[in-house]
Amino acid sequence: MRFSYARPDLGLYLLLLVNLNFKLGETANILGLFPYQYTSPFLVVKPFVQALVERGHNVTLITSKSMPDVKGIRHLRVSKLNERFQEMFKGDEKFDFLINKWRESIFGAKIYFHMCQEILSDDAVQRILKDRNEHFDLIMMEATNLDALCGLVEYYNATLVGLAFLNFNWYTEELAGNPAPSIYEPISPIGYSRDHSMLSRIYNWIHITEEKLLENLIILPAQLQLFKKFFGYSEQKFYELRNKYSVILVNDHFSMGKVRANVPNIIEVGGLHLSEPPEPCDENLQRFMDEAEHGVIYFSMGLDILVQFLPENMQQPLMQSFSQLKQRVVWKNELFNMPNKSENIYAIKKAPQRHILEHPNIRLFITNGGSLSVMEAVSSGVPMLGLPVFFDQFGNLQWAQLAGMTEVLDVNTLNAEILTTTIRELIENPKYSLRAKEMSNTFRDRPMSPLDTAVWWTEYALRNRNAALIRLNKEDISVMWYYRLDCLLSFGLRFLIVFGSVLYLIWKVIQKKRERKKTKELKMLQLTSQ
């Protein structure tokens, strides 16, 4: 991926400026905590930590066994993270947590609790904590419910930097010190409305209020328990450390339709993983796409969803629809010997996705809507057909749909006719392609690449240890001042005075009319009595 810059030499100039201020001898010891269990987040973390090593910093990563080796980095792999995660997903009721928000939050609380517990009780981690020669200047961690791990910030007197792999939500906003209800996004987007009707606003307020209750009643108490057990700090210190994020790097960008009012310490670095070179493409696949007279459709449900686990009522419509199209289809599919496979379908187990999306013959990307896939489609200017399955995929695709480059279908009601009609509309109607190209141009046009931006702000946090410098600390601002209730009260008072005066005048006029009427009636009675 190539980003265009406002000035060709600006990125280089800024990096040279950083070099002057952050001398070679001032390298930092950085501890990264990324207990992911799936592949996608590592694609974002890997180039970032590699760049920090190349800048001369000493990086230690605490991860699960899923994290690939990164040259020049000390890895501490907590094997129990993988084991615990597999245990929680065993059995026939493994996806029961998706039924409602309460079950989802209880399940999430268990995952976060076990992540933190396995990390802090790991032998290698404990050895580092007990080694007086170990010191870390900066702690990097996923800006999510790993609150117990914030004890490491106090333990090492370190700067705290967050990395939010998924999209913005109200929780990330509050960690950054940006409690702004007007731009809140939910943690779980399922059932969250994107229209602006009064009923939707009320429902969305209830939706987020419920999430906040679950956060405070279920997730945070479990994290506080671990925090006290392993560090022995007070409850007050727990909540104080949660507000210590100097910078939060968010894997998102406003050009994807999510324009918002960010505080200075929220830094958008969407596209950071695109700094890595694209995967190579084999000759057969290259020839298949090059010779596609009517273009290519690429279909993938991401890195972590296997086709064999897709429900039958979803697989069959896909096969029926693809066989009716004149376009060629590249299908990321581990089942090479698919039944009823059409000649226009190229099945591949591991697809070079970025190479495919950049091919000149690509016409459409059918995707489940993972954040990295959506970002790659936006970067390449390719329209999308969304088939979201869970979590952030619904929100990612809704934003792309609102931006005008995507249509979204419900996988539960999918049939070949609807699928074929939607695919043809997306390919034949030029508005989708034009909008995708416009978004691509905006996404790429930045003063610095996402990787350079992430590195610059990380080193800024190291140079400027005072987190309050770029945070909006709500503890220092009264509710009256933050929401400008004084202005509202003043306005309300003036309105009441004017409104009350008008009512008083109307009442006086009505009263005078009644008095006149009574006087007139009295005179008439006097006349008739005479």
Name the descriptors.
about 525 residues; alpha/beta; Rossmann fold; 3 domains; seven-stranded parallel beta sheet; six-stranded parallel beta sheet; about 50% helix
Describe this structure in words.
- This protein has 530 residues and is an alpha/beta fold.
- The protein has 3 domains: 10-275 and 446-470, 3-Layer(aba) Sandwich (Rossmann fold); 283-444, Glycogen Phosphorylase B (Rossmann fold, 3-Layer(aba) Sandwich); 482-524.
- It contains 19 helices and 13 strands.
- It has helices spanning 10-21, 40-54, 79-88, 101-121, 123-130, 151-156, 170-175, 198-231, 235-241, 283-290, 312-324, 353-357, 371-380, 393-403, 416-428, 430-444, 450-463, 479-482, 485-529; strands at residues 29-34, 58-63, 74-77, 138-142, 159-164, 245-250, 266-268, 296-300, 328-332, 345-348, 362-367, 384-386, 406-408.
- A 7-stranded parallel β-sheet has the order 3-2-1-4-5-6-7.
- Strand 11 (362-367), helix 13 (371-380) and strand 12 (384-386) form a beta-alpha-beta unit.
- Helix 3 (79-88) runs antiparallel to helix 4 (101-121), helix 11 packs across helix 15 and helix 13 packs across helix 16 (430-444).
- The longest helix has 45 residues, at 485-529.
- The radius of gyration is 29 Å and the shape is globular.
- The chain starts with 9 loop residues before the first helix and ends with a helix.
